[in-house]
Design goal:
The complex is a heterodimer of chains A (152) and B (158).
Chain A lengths: L2 E6 L4 H11 L5 E9 L9 E5 L8 H19 L3 E4 L6 H9 L3 E5 L10 H6 L5 E4 L12 E2 L5
Parallel strand pairs in A: 1-2, 1-4, 2-3, 4-5, 5-6, 6-7
Chain B lengths: L1 E5 L8 H11 L5 E5 L11 E3 L4 H10 L2 E5 L2 H9 L3 E5 L13 H10 L4 E3 L5 H7 L12 H13 L2
Parallel strand pairs in B: 1-2, 1-4, 2-3, 4-5, 5-6
Classes of the chains: A alpha/beta (152), B alpha/beta (158).
Chain lengths: 152, 158
């Protein structure tokens, strides 16, 4: 049986980076994609959407609770073997749920962070089975990370 | 000169940059089209949309002689990979343009490496445009294939 990957990220640059991974996935994997709903999102059968949000937004707390519930529903329906995330905050629930159910978590710290950790990366570092950074300088923050250069 | 302006998809405005673009657009030598995202500034001198789906976005970059963009990695890298001249500006959280100032680091790196021209201050737009004729933009070499090979190799061993 094919292994299933759940790709998850917020919109913008995080999703650009995730898309590069999705477009090059070997055929041996099944996959689903979870991302933020934006006005210009292209629909695809394998996609799930959560509300677009960020930590400065007024309704962030309520949206985040909804995202936790939806992430649970997605996980129980799809049962991925591996969760791959490029950040940001909205991916945390699904990543943690995956670890609770003993799946593998792969986190890729954003290309946009040259000398600073993202809040999401800092939080998920201890839970990740594989933590990837795109700048050598980031190994100073994440000792056990793997540096494989830029995704772009 | 065809100019494509990219402000990205995040729920933050970047009106400061749009104000400068409006001034630039008074010069009819520049034919400007902008993707303005969540900005609420009303452009007077150039046409715009809020968002573009992927293939139209790519086409606008391809047709441009110059790309003026916020310093988001997707926006910069999409344009660099298509060999475009780029002037980028970092969003500033002090003006509620993003959650934090992480765009500055990316801007610093790409400017120092001479892949792009850029500034923290949209008011520098005109002086950066004046630098264009004499500036030698460094060509960007993608690392995607190496990244993909390595990551899927790592996944095999999981």
């Amino acid at each position: 049986m094919k292994k299933k990957i759940a790709f998850i990220s917020s919109s913008g640059g995080h999703f650009e980076q995730l898309s590069i991974l999705i477009n090059n996935i070997p055929s041996k994997y099944d996959f689903i994609v979870v991302t933020e709903k934006t006005t210009y999102t292209a629909k695809s059968k394998k996609n799930y959407y959560v509300p677009q949000t960020n930590r400065k937004e007024f309704f962030f707390f309520f949206k985040f609770i909804y995202i936790i519930i939806k992430s649970f529903a997605i996980f129980l329906k799809e049962k991925p073997d591996i969760v791959i995330s490029t950040g940001a905050l909205i991916s945390i629930p699904l990543c943690i749920i995956a670890k609770i159910f003993k799946r593998k978590l792969v986190f890729i710290e954003s290309f946009a962070e040259v000398n600073h950790q993202t809040k999401t990366g800092k939080y998920l570092y201890k839970y990740s089975d594989v933590f990837i950074v795109q700048w050598k300088s980031m190994l100073n923050f994440y000792e056990n990370a793997i540096f494989i250069g830029s995704i772009y | 000169m065809n100019v494509f302006v990219i402000l990205g998809s995040q729920k933050f405005q970047f009106n400061r940059l749009l104000t400068e673009i409006d001034k630039l657009a008074e010069n009819k030598e520049y034919f400007i089209f902008a993707q303005i995202g969540y900005s609420d500034y009303q452009p007077k001198n150039f046409s715009f949309v809020r968002f573009l789906e992927h293939s139209k976005f790519k086409k606008n970059i391809l047709d441009a002689d110059l790309v003026i963009t916020h310093a988001g990695s997707g926006s910069i890298l999409s344009s660099l990979k298509l060999g475009k001249k780029i002037i980028a500006f970092s969003r500033d959280p002090k003006f509620n343009e993003h959650v934090d100032d992480h765009q500055r680091e990316l801007l610093d790196y790409f400017c120092n490496q001479k892949y792009i021209l850029g500034s923290y201050y949209p008011s520098d737009l005109f002086s950066l445009i004046n630098e264009l004729p004499d500036f030698e933009f460094k060509q960007y070499e993608p690392n995607t294939k190496q990244f993909i090979d390595k990551i899927y190799e790592i996944l095999e061993r999981l």
